[in-house]
């Protein structure tokens, strides 16, 4: 048999979510149990939830479901697509990029978007005898959210290509 041993775990690439936690023991812990990263997510999540609540109070539902929640989820999905694609194109998930991903992506946008409100509103519409509106509300949120994510990724990719083209000049841009 030639090539690397598929059972050699030491030869596998490292997990970017494992950091060496203690330099004296070399013990690697997942980042989700490290206080620094938990704090970033908590701060971002608090801000995102506050922004969402402010928007929900500013634009309360008049009749039927809270359509502002659909808008919030779609905008959040778009922003997450832009953020994650931008960070991925700038290099490995380490240092500043990891901090931004956890603070803004997991924290801020995780608190800003709310699929639990989508589920609750859909259930309430079903309970009130409006299954058609419930289906439209749920599907619109999910499909528009997916489209928002794809659009965000496309925007970040195009922005990255423009940046590369400006840096490399016209000859390199053709390659």
What are the key terms here?
mainly alpha; two-stranded antiparallel sheet; 70% helix; 175 residues
Gross morphology: globular
Number of helices: 5
Rounded to the nearest angstrom, the distance between the terminal CA atoms is 37 Å
The largest sheet is:
2 strands, antiparallel
Strand pairing plus helix content: what structural class? mainly alpha
How are helices and strands ordered from N to C? EEHHHHH
Q: What is the total domain count?
A: 1
Number of strands: 2
**Spatial sequence of strands, sheet with the most strands:** 1-2
State which percent range the strand residues make up.
5-15%
| Radius of gyration of CA atoms, rounded to a whole number | 21 Å
Percent of residues in helices: over 70%
Low-confidence stretches: 8-15
Overall residue-averaged pLDDT value: 84
Could you explain how this protein is built, in words?
This protein is mainly alpha-helical and 175 residues long. It has one domain (9-174). The protein is built from 5 helices and 2 strands. It has a two-stranded antiparallel ribbon. A hairpin with a 4-residue loop joins strand 1 (18-22) and strand 2. The radius of gyration is 21 Å and the shape is globular. The chain starts with 17 loop residues before the first strand and ends with a helix.
Q: Quick gist of this model?
A:
With 175 residues, the protein is mostly helical. It is 70% helix and 5% strand.
What is the strand and helix layout of this fold?
Layout lengths: L17 E5 L4 E4 L4 H24 L8 H24 L4 H18 L2 H13 L3 H44 L1
Helix pairs in contact: 1-3, 2-3, 2-5, 4-5
